[in-house]
TrEMBL record:
Membrane topology: Multi-pass membrane protein
Residues annotated as transmembrane: 12-31, 43-65, 91-111, 123-140, 146-165, 202-220, 232-254, 316-334, 341-362, 374-398, 418-438, 458-483, 504-525, 567-587, 615-633, 674-691
Subcellular location: Membrane
Protein's GO biological process: ATP synthesis coupled electron transport; electron transport coupled proton transport
Entries under NCBIfam families matching the protein: NDH_I_L
Organism of provenance: Nitrosopumilus cobalaminigenes
Stored InterPro entries: NADHpl_OxRdtase_5_subgr, ND/Mrp_TM, NU5C-like, Proton_antipo_N
Key words of the record: Membrane, Transmembrane, Transmembrane helix
Protein name per UniProt: NADH-quinone oxidoreductase subunit L
All residue ranges annotated as the NADH-Ubiquinone oxidoreductase (complex I) chain 5 N-terminal domain in the record: 80-123
Molecular function per GO: NADH dehydrogenase (ubiquinone) activity; NADH dehydrogenase activity
Domain called NADH:quinone oxidoreductase/Mrp antiporter transmembrane: residue spans: 190-465
The UniProt record lists the keyword Transmembrane helix: yes
Gene Ontology CC annotations of this record: membrane
Amino acid sequence: MATEAFGLPFEVGTLSAWLVWILPFAAAMIIPGVGKLSKHATGYVAVAFALMSALSAATMIPVALEAHEMHHQIMWIEALGLKGGVLADPLSIIMANVVGWISFLIMIYSTGYMKGDKDITRFWFWMMFFIGSMQLIVLSDNLLQVFFGWEGVGLASYALISFWYRDKKKDHVGVEGRTVLGMLDYYAPTHAGMKAFIMTKVGDVMMIAGMLLIFLYAGTFGFKELMDSTDWAIAMQAEGLLVPAFVLLFGGAIGKSAQFPLNEWLLEAMTGPTAVSALIHAATMVKAGVFLVARIGPLVFALGAAGIMADQFFEIIAWVGAITALLLATQGMVNPEIKKVLAYSTGSQIGYMMMALGVAGLSHQYVDGYTAGFFHLISHAMFKASLFMAAGSLLHIVGSRFMTDMGGLRKQMKKTYAFMWAAGLGLMGAPFITTGFWSKDAIFAAVYTSGNEWAMPLYIIAVLTAVITAFYTTRMIGMVFFGKKSKHIEKMEEEGHHIHEASLSMWIPYGILAVLTIGIGLIGLSTEQGLHHLFEEYLEHSFGIHSSHAADEASILPEFLQGLNPVALGSSLVAFATGIGLGYIFYIGRWVDPIKFVNSNIFFYSLHKLILNRWYLNAIIYWCFVVAPLWLARGVFRYFEKTAIDYGMNAGVQKAVGWSAKVVQGTQTGVSQSYLFVFGAGLLFVVLILLI
């Protein structure tokens, strides 16, 4: 059931949808003026408007729970007949609440984390602009409007990643002086911001190309309008352009969500304040790509009912997700910087979501993969925001981004220790008590039961990634909170610095999300089933995607686990136990020294070096797309522009003209007889030519 409206005045329900993204933009406009009066007050304005935006999103929850939608449009570009509007359906309403409420908690956290920063007004401006742009993506009813929000989050990310633009050493990421294949693996905030901006722009160009291709055939950017008629899709398929157009759209998602091969910007994005990292990784930016796939995926799948098949589109999504999940998870096992470990983890978990959404389109039961992917998005948003904010507290107190400078902190930072365990267990997928377990298990089940030819290799990658995830999460907690105090901490204490818990405004937000990770996890199965039922109705009403209900079969599982796939459940349990067990052996129990283990034979040493060097992908990208073009440009300048043009053509023309001028000057004798002789000779020559 849909509620549609066109023009003004706004209806009460649809007004909430507009306010969700307008309020953060309004705050961004107000904050610079408030900052002129009081920098301290800018934080209150940001928190207040973030709360109002979140409350506006919350008022739409009843609409989502009934699987209804609200669609409201106004005339935007009359000359082209383009309308702007909001589409509040179950997908966008749930996403708007995830973005709104987690952003609100991050704003509260930021009041403590950024306290005293002299550029605080600029910080709040860009944070609110970031949130507004993300909510615009979520609630827009057409691709063009989405693209405006898309570019908005790109601009805000550039400004916030390079927020500390003075490029002090403490704000860099990487190990100073370290090189990979001759490329410096140590980055300043301004470099990192530019890298993120350029790499995501590669995806943005692909996205706008896909949008324009679709508009060329459909004459509209609107999601509802594209679903109302399939003539445009039939015409595009006939010319072999349908799948390329949607793959180009997916290219935008690859860039924003840092998926392979456009994943390398995400690690350097850690140069920004930790509050920014939490916002990028949990509520905005990287989730935008997942949301875009969740928005257009059902449309592509529904075209199959009209005989317009686009399986290659879903295969690409599934494999990009799988490759990214495994690739970035391995890098999280060896990196010494806590924020980078969490960044690798984000890219890997986004890969899980993409894998699920891709597998959904390759399965007859589309809703299974769709629900699993989106449920994991919600779950990940909670525990990853909590982990990032907790990591920010550690950096704030210890004054170092390296986990090797930490150690033994569980006694001095008991709250942070407990909350990081709770959120970390969610990331690891601790059985039956965390949201991460249920969402990850749903992904396993969706992949395993999809029945397509790629099911088994994708399933193996998913399980292996889960083992690695549990390992690097345990490693992170072990290095930070267990063992002896590092020399860095001992030196701090000798100098009179006391290691203590973070301030109230900082630990309460990540504490709330950590508790929710466990609290919702305790009812995770019913939550997943409720979400499944909700999306089942939504997909059927909005896209005509029907779900097949198989007859109940006898299960070996106990009654409270009925409905779960035994193979997927078993894989989840084994993956968790294996990963946390290995992590405990190396980093909590300290039974085996990881350094000695790595150096014990050439295989482990080489593998460790390969992974620590980021599989050499980052260095190769720099060589191919930075060093080589610069070398070529300098060669063109030196041998063509400077030699051929400046010294050759320009100087040659100058000398030729000078020589010609001297020749002409030599003919100017001033003797009339000479001129008459030349004139006569010329006239005779012309006559001879005419006679011949």
